[in-house]
Amino acid sequence: GAVVSQHPSRVICKSGTSVKIECRSLDFQATTMFWYRQFPKKSLMLMATSNEGSKATYEQGVEKDKFLINHASLTLSTLTVTSAHPEDSSFYICSARGPARGEPQHFGDGTRLSIL
Amino acid sequence: AQKVTQAQTEISVVEKEDVTLDCVYETRDTTYYLFWYKQPPSGELVFLIRRNSFDEQNEISGRYSWNFQKSTSSFNFTITASQVVDSAVYFCALSEKSGANSKLTFGKGITLSVRP
User: Fold this and answer.
1) Are B100 and A44 an interchain contact pair (Cβ–Cβ within 8 Å)?
2) A5 touches chain B (CB under 8 A)
């Protein structure tokens, strides 16, 4: 089945640090990648949608300058949390899908971000 | 607007019991896709099934079965002879469009605990 790799799985860093999270599709070309945020015991909240070579489309209320997304190739998208603060602590999870109609999103393992 | 309702929040069963997870959806589109994902304690989301709106056939995969009924806008998931490894959060999701940028609308998730 389709495999999506997300790295790192866990980050603990000081307030003010910028953190980059990578999302790779290992065995298929991901036309579109999605970034989600999940709070404890809550559902997934879509942050942004990115297509290879295009600017990401952000959901309402998500700061573009805070959460920088780059989708440079059909297999890699990155999310950079800039100048992270404790309120950015969360579980971030990416997904990727191919272009086929009704293709499911395949999810990475998630990144648990803790800002001290 | 599309909406997914998972009215059950937490279910606890004893191993070998059967359990059904309910999912009710709302959409104005005639073409849509329904999904179930499993999120074990480790955090990753595992794709379980996709069903398109034109296919009302029920599906069985091992101990898992799905009942899709358009008349009641429901897509319920049954686990037969539950096992401890089935303990996880289960999300039902809906996608209205088939394009690459189609977003998933998730329900709030059902936490299933299977006790030995």
Assistant:
1) no
2) no
